[in-house]
Specification:
Mean pLDDT: 89
Distance between the termini: 157 Å
Structural class: mainly alpha
Largest sheet: none
Strand content: under 5%
């Protein structure tokens, strides 16, 4: 009878050990699920960062193109201003008298 009791005790102990193993397996599975979720979230975050960087690159390229257009427009305006200066240069004004009095122009005889 003593051997039966010892065997029953061993079976009970084995059952408790198996229950502990199952509990450990469940905990490992929960940890693995958490890691999987965290990895998916990180992948999504990395994707968003990559998308944001691509957007920044596009905006930078657009800004560079706008700067080139502005430089071309400034050069064009400078050329037009030079042409205007030359066009107006043909007009000569008489110098004003020092006392700012109105002086009649002499007529040629």
């Amino acid at each position: 009878m003593q051997r039966v009791q010892a065997g029953a005790a061993l079976v009970d102990e084995a059952g408790q050990t198996m229950a502990g193993i199952l509990t450990g397996v469940r905990q490992v599975r929960e940890i693995m699920d958490g890691m999987s979720t965290a990895s998916a979230e990180q992948a999504a975050g990395i994707g968003q960062v990559a998308e944001a960087l691509a957007h920044l690159d596009r905006v930078t390229q657009q800004n560079a193109a706008l700067v080139q257009q502005m430089a071309a427009a400034a050069a064009s305006l400078q050329a037009l201003a030079g042409q205007q200066v030359q066009a107006v240069a043909v007009f000569r004004l008489q110098p004003e008298p020092a006392d700012n009095a109105v002086q009649p122009l002499a007529l040629a005889a």
